[in-house]
Amino acid sequence: MFRILSVWLVTWVLVSSRYLASEAQIRPLTFAMRKLAFSTNQFGIDLYRALKVPKNEVVAFCPFCISTSLAMILLGAQGRSANALQQALYLWGVRQEDVHIAFHDLLIHLRDNLQVTPGHHIPDHLGNGNGGYRQEYGVQDFEILLFNSIYVQREYSILYHYQKFLHTFYNTSVHPLDFSMYGEESRLHINAIVEKQTKGNIKNILDQPLPKTTSVLLLNALSFDGVLDISGSTTNPTAEDVHRNSQYNQFSQGYNNHPFSLNHAFQPTHSRLPPIGGPGSYYAPSFSQAMTYAAATPYNTHNFITPPTRTRQGGLRHGIYDYLGCTGVEVPFRSGLLSLVLLIPSDTSSINMLETRLNAQHITDILGTMQSKNVILEIPHISFEDSPKNLTQALFRSGLVDLFTPGFAELLGMSDFRWLHITNLIHKINVNIKNGNNVNHQQTAPPSGQETIHMSLQDKPFLFFVIDNISGLAL
């Protein structure tokens, strides 16, 4: 009996070890993960429209960060609030328990599948007492730092099972602070945590004292640093860069002037990897991954733009889309796992049509239909820090008013206190997309005799997406 039991235990250990080893090498995408990535893209596009960005203003945000924060709230929401969240996040048709499993798996995907060189692995699960953990892998070509967390006024007790599931699915917890008595101290504490967890890239995420009436504060941030694969490129010293550092009153647009913010540290970083396929191929992206989602407008002095521009010549994926009134161009990052997708309106008046008609299915179709062309592209160096204005108002327009209303939020799966509600949601993004003109990477030349396409983004509005080529998620 002892021998049989020993053999069974050894067999189980060997099978489990082999499974874990194979899982560490590749983590396949489930249907729920693909559905979630697609839904997050559509949520991001809807949120961009709801922001009602003024003309000649640049705005950028990470829909995955914001949707993850809202999914944490969905974990404890009931009734109309839960239904409204599922509608806004395009999660109908997916069981609520599957939603959180999909978010968990997608976070793990960002950590594992984007880890390119196992030899550069740095010990993960770096514990911290401020919610979640950091994931860090040696990076040369791009780095993604995600931060999500929930803060609550300390008098409000949080249910144990909510804390348990929050830690299980999102590896974070709800952190009590005294906003009513120590608002300034709470602000400084949160700023210090975010700055530390994002390696100093996100500073002063809360630039004003929090209102004393703060109930629940959701806070999230993204720092993205990437190097484009621009082999054979030249630099135009007279061109301008996209550079913005946005300053504004974060709390002026909150419901009844109440703010809310979140903190959860999650940061996969990445090292070099040969591009997937060549310039003429594409690795089946069906949905977008943690990437930067941004909308840009005509670049002029009002947008704080400074020189220079990079020019790329060679095989780029390119397509013309008359229904959207735009031209699409894909520029890969050096790792080959991420791409910068640019949607450039045919003329200055077409930007409105593009913003009105674009949806997540169009993004998927564009990624699947672009062809390798001989393109000379003048693209500005993109570097800015932004925190979208009117984000809470945009969420109101998305049907989430009850979540921000005392007595109507129905967060009874989170706390027994009926009046608990979200006071505000604060989001900040730091993007730095650099030219990789020092890269010595040979590309397959476009077919001989192919027409050369000259494109310049100078003084033109355009949309850009940082796309995960594995999941299709748009950061």
Automatic annotation (TrEMBL):
One of its GO terms (molecular function) is serine-type endopeptidase inhibitor activity. Keywords: Protease inhibitor, Serine protease inhibitor, Signal. It comes from the Eukaryota. One of its GO terms (cellular component) is extracellular space. Residues 1-17 form the signal peptide. Residues 45-472 form the Serpin domain. Belongs to the serpin family. This is Ovalbumin-related protein Y. It comes from Stegodyphus mimosarum. The lineage of its organism: Eukaryota, Metazoa, Ecdysozoa, Arthropoda, Chelicerata.
